[in-house]
Amino acid sequence: MKSNYIKTLLIFALAVFIVNCSSDDDAPMGPTGPNFSGTYAQSDQMGRPAVNTVFVSSASKDQFNTTIPSQQNGSFQAMFQANLEALSPAYANPSDANALGLDSAAFTGLLATDVLNVSLDGTTTFFDGTNVLTGRALSDDVITVELLLIFGGEDFSENPTLSNDNVDANDKTFLSSFPYLATPW
Question: From which residue to which does the signal peptide run (predicted)?
Answer without folding.
Answer: 1-23
